[in-house]
Specification:
Layout lengths: L1 E7 L5 E8 L9 E6 L2 E6 L12 E6 L3 E6 L4 E7 L4 E6 L3
Antiparallel strand pairs: 1-2, 3-6, 4-5, 6-7, 7-8
């Protein structure tokens, strides 16, 4: 089991990506996903980053819809499509 994403190509084909594997089937009951519309959201950042605010977050722009992936009472992350590298990237929303 896992979190999978399908991307349709210009030729009408689909390519799928495994974003995360779920090793414990019982954990599926507390996992969730939410689709983010394109826009600017606050994401976690390293303290050394210039745009890092006092809350430990920085603005991040999604040009395409993104997938928020979370576990109840745990960290959450976002998977977004990196157009240049043609793959999904993961960044953290919370720790």
């Amino acid at each position: 089991m896992g979190l999978l994403a399908f991307v349709h190509t210009a030729q009408g084909n689909a390519q799928w990506f495994v974003l995360d594997e779920i090793k414990d089937p019982a954990s599926i009951a507390v996992m969730g996903v939410q689709l983010y519309s394109p826009g600017t959201y606050k994401m976690m950042c390293a303290e050394s980053e210039k745009q890092c605010g006092p809350d430990g977050k920085r603005p991040f722009d999604f040009r395409l819809p993104a997938i928020s992936y979370f576990k109840s009472e745990s960290a959450s992350s976002v998977f977004y499509w990196n157009e240049r590298d043609r793959k999904f990237e993961r960044i953290w929303e919370s720790d």
